[in-house]
Target: Cyclin-dependent kinase 8
Amino acid sequence: MMDYEFKIKTSNERTKVEDLFEFEGCKVGRGTYGHVYKAKRKDSTEKDKDNVKDYALKQIEGTGLSMSACREIALLRELKHPNVINLIRVFLSHNDRKVWLLFDFAEHDLWHIIKFHRAAKANKKPLMVAKGMVKSLLYQILDGIHYLHSNWVLHRDLKPANILVMGEGIERGRVKIADMGFARLFNAPLKPLADLDPVVVTFWYRAPELLLGARHYTKAIDIWAIGCIFAELLTSEPIFHCRQEDIKTSNPYHHDQLDRIFNVMGFPLEKEWEDIRKMPEHPTLIKDFKKSNYTNCSLIKYMDRHKIKQESKAFHLLQKLLLMDPTRRITSEQAMQDPYFLEDPLPNSDVFAGCPIPYPKREFLTDDDQDDKSDANKRQNQAANQQQQHRSSSLSTTNTAGSGDVAREPISALSCAAPAAAAPGPRLDRLDAEGLALAGLRGLRKRAASGSVDGWSGGGGGATASPDGVCQSCFGKFHDDTNGEEWIQCLSCSGWYHAKCQGLQAYLHTFQCLRCKQAAG
Model:
């Protein structure tokens, strides 16, 4: 064990983030993941004031290293690609036990870009994303994902808010894939990941095999999400919008989300998806849905309503990305070679193609501001909770997409922020079972497990950022906690609990809830 005085001395000698960067009053994003600031180096001279580089400083919420933060840091230290966000440096503060991540600053993201065009449509002044820009965005997203997949990494939480776009500067118009907090290494042959994370990926962009409980899902889940993003760029509307997006559950099956997919795509036929019978939730699917309710639904009809013709190369590529059967879904490499990218206008490294950028820059937030995302989440959660209470008695196969503008804000505005809409990741001791063997993560894991990372006390190694949802003992809401209350997950039933409700004071490596212990005798 490291001597306490030595740790204090080491901490005092370590470079502090506030000594190097000016960011006070420059908050540009916040959420359950923490806060993000637009920062500048303090040693920049007045002479270079107009050319000073901007950075994104992400302060991780809570005290200690969460599983999501560990995974994000470890992967980003190993991954280097023009279309993947670059982690420049990690700052650890002993005094307040905070973790700061330094990234390049991205002025835009796809969520805000699509919102801009959706607002124009709502104001009766339709302004679609330019065809060349859509193509450039999609190509760069595919390029970044191809790099991740080539290195055996699944992103697992692709959505517009996690696709950043650089503003003015040397990387103008460059796409950056962000939010590696839920990324995972995968092996060949594939190992089951569902035991560790029953629910991953925001519902709207979640592949049907995930919703049906697939245990050996593959990189095809990222391809489905890219197809959803592609459709959203073409139409300015989320293709599989569902009102209950923010509900957290350990059960991957989501009736309303499947209903929305079927209302767009039609009900999957066994001849089109031979393995659908092998899905764990297939019996529930047959019980809840009637094939006849979706006979008039198809992707062709949906896109035609948005003036995307089935003869177009864009539609042909979209079809390949959104195939129900994951084994038939196109790969990122195949998609990059699609004829769609060979016709004019050709994809550009600057998605704005040298034209003036019409999108507004990020605004600074104050502590008194109510972030749009927080408000939207509260409204969605309240409505979703009410719907969930009545769901068992009122399940139906009606279209839940609704109409009008979609009220949602990105969880991550600038950097690789852990998504608020996903359940917490597994604990540190469960990493090796998945094959997460990156050297950076191994070292981080050992130090975090011992409660010390570079002289910084980790306080028990557990994550303190609370997931939305309720404790299975007291049924108190996790997100109501303000005192750093730790949450823990039972290895048997996967239920989430407040540590105090189970009579525990610290994060355990092997936790089994009282109910499961009693059931086991």
Q: What stands out?
A: The first strand starts at residue 21 and ends at 22.
